[in-house]
């Protein structure tokens, strides 16, 4: 088989570079990336939601579509849910449905932004009864997580203001902490609260958790069950995200990722479509942390919840998810090919060019034969995109018609 010929050559080249290829293969097999239920439904911009044919009509069908992504990639065994978008009468039934499809329910995401009451904030609202309503929803999500055996509740807040003087920053900070503490106290000891930050939108003057430092500080104040979630689309242009990632790893407070790509703002596009090198450098920091001498850093890196947070507005959703998973896997594989000893040596000698070369060289490797071999060994499709496209599933779901679930 052609694949074998190319793989044999690849293996030889990597051995010559001092790479332990069996270790790399086992790391790639362990990489799992969660898909978001909302990425399978119809979505759009504030200008228009374009309805696609065959979109899932309820949470159960979203899981059926997500199962296709996992079936062909072998790399996305869990699905994040968003409440109330995925509200069902019987969460145990949703859990069994997921399991029957070889999936599990991943992070539970509360929604504190789509209710009229939240016009001026949720957990930061000046009105105590609205803060209480927001807290009750957070507690409801902890209960749902317990019911479906999910260990993660993932928080993103739209809270913020549009004008100077609109609200009291310090007061809002205290209210947010108070609400989150109530939620934190209700979580089991093995549960995790992931705190996401974003510097703008929908609020344009200030947001209450504007950056990683604020999320990190909040997590620290709450306790060890709280960690930071890095959404790759939530930074000002030119932010060095890999540095933030390394810092949070070292502080043992990096909980997870929302992967997506963007060109201008929080565009929620297919991860690595625009920024493959940025995602690579982030993953490279993680791979390096996996080899740290501090076991705390190693276990933080090993517990990262990798998730996609994307909306597919004009492209078909299932293949867009497959593409995204493959992109992350591809860049993670490249990151595993950095010769860390060589890099360390170059850093110690302050050899700038050799250090940069060590990081760049791995990025430039074509990992196609490696990934094909890994997929074959995992029992996944060697070419997941092609296999999905030939499976007939896309045609089958057209009977659902238009007007499926939307966010
Ligand atoms: C809004 O910015 C957002 O994209 C956040 O990234 C959340 O994680 C996501 O929506 C789901 O609520
Ligand atoms: Mn996000
Ligand atoms: Mn976002």
What does this 3D model show about the protein?
- Pfam families: AP_endonuc_2.
- GO terms for molecular function: L-rhamnose isomerase activity; metal ion binding.
- It comes from Salibacterium salarium.
- Its EC number is 5.3.1.14.
- This is L-rhamnose isomerase.
- It is a single chain.
- A five-stranded parallel beta sheet has the order 4-6-8-9-10.
- The longest helix is centred in the middle third of the chain and has 21 residues, at 128-148.
- The chain has 407 residues and is of the alpha/beta class.
- It contains 16 helices and ten strands.
- The chain folds into two domains: 1-29 and 338-390, no CATH class; 31-336, Divalent-metal-dependent TIM barrel enzymes (TIM Barrel), CATH 3.20.20.
- Helix content is 48%, strand content 11%.
- It has helices at residues 2-16, 21-30, 59-73, 91-100, 128-148, 169-186, 212-222, 241-250, 276-289, 295-302, 317-336, 340-348, 352-363, 368-378, 384-391, 393-396, and strands spanning 35-36, 78-83, 104-110, 152-155, 160-161, 192-196, 206-207, 226-231, 254-259, 305-308.
- Bound molecules: alpha-D-psicofuranose and manganese (II) ion (MN) (2 copies).
- Alpha-D-psicofuranose binds at residues 109, 156, 196, 198, 231, 258, 266, 268, 309.
Helices, strands, pairings?
Layout: H1 2-16, H2 21-30, E1 35-36, H3 59-73, E2 78-83, H4 91-100, E3 104-110, H5 128-148, E4 152-155, E5 160-161, H6 169-186, E6 192-196, E7 206-207, H7 212-222, E8 226-231, H8 241-250, E9 254-259, H9 276-289, H10 295-302, E10 305-308, H11 317-336, H12 340-348, H13 352-363, H14 368-378, H15 384-391, H16 393-396
Parallel strand pairs: 1-2, 2-3, 4-6, 6-8, 8-9, 9-10
Antiparallel strand pairs: 5-7
Helix pairs in contact: 1-14, 2-11, 2-14, 3-11, 3-15, 5-6, 8-9, 9-11, 11-15, 12-13
One manganese (II) ion (MN) is lined by residues 231, 233-234, 266, 309.
């Amino acid at each position: 088989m052609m694949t074998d010929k190319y793989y044999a050559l690849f293996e030889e080249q990597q051995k010559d570079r001092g790479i332990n290829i069996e270790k790399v293969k086992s790391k790639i097999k362990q990489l799992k990336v969660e898909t978001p239920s909302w990425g399978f439904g119809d979505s759009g911009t504030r200008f228009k939601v374009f309805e696609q044919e065959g979109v899932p009509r309820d949470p159960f069908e979203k899981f059926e579509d997500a199962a296709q992504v996992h079936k062909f990639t072998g790399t996305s065994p869990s699905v994040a849910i968003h409440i109330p978008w995925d509200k069902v009468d019987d969460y145990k039934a949703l859990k069994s449905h997921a399991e029957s499809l070889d999936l599990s329910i991943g992070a539970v995401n509360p929604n504190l932004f789509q209710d009229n009451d939240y016009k001026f904030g949720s957990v930061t609202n000046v009105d105590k009864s609205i803060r209480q309503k927001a807290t009750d929803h957070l507690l409801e999500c902890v209960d749902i997580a317990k019911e479906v055996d999910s260990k993660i509740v993932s928080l993103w807040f739209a809270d913020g203001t549009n004008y100077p003087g609109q609200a009291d920053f310090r007061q809002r900070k205290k209210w947010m902490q108070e609400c989150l503490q109530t939620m934190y106290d209700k979580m089991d000891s093995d549960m995790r609260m992931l705190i996401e930050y974003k510097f703008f939108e929908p609020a344009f003057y200030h947001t209450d958790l504007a950056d990683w430092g604020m999320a990190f500080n909040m997590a620290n104040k709450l306790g060890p069950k709280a960690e930071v979630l890095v959404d790759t689309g939530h930074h000002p242009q030119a932010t060095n995200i890999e540095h933030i990632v390394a810092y949070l790893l070292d502080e043992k407070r990096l909980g997870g990722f929302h992967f997506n790509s963007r060109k201008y703002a929080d565009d929620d596009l297919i991860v690595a479509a625009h920024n493959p090198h940025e995602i690579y450098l982030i993953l490279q920091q993680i791979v390096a942390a996996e080899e740290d001498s501090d076991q705390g850093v190693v276990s933080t890196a090993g517990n990262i919840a990798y998730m996609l947070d994307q909306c597919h507005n004009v492209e078909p959703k299932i293949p867009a998810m497959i593409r995204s998973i493959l992109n992350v896997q591809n860049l993670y594989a490249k990151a595993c090919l950095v010769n860390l000893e060589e890099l360390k040596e170059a850093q110690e000698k302050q050899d700038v060019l050799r250090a940069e070369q060590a990081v760049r060289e791995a990025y430039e490797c074509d990992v196609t034969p490696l990934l094909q071999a890994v997929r074959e060994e995992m029992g996944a499709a060697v070419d997941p995109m092609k296999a999905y496209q030939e499976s007939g599933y896309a045609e089958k779901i057209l009977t659902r018609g238009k007007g499926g679930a939307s966010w």
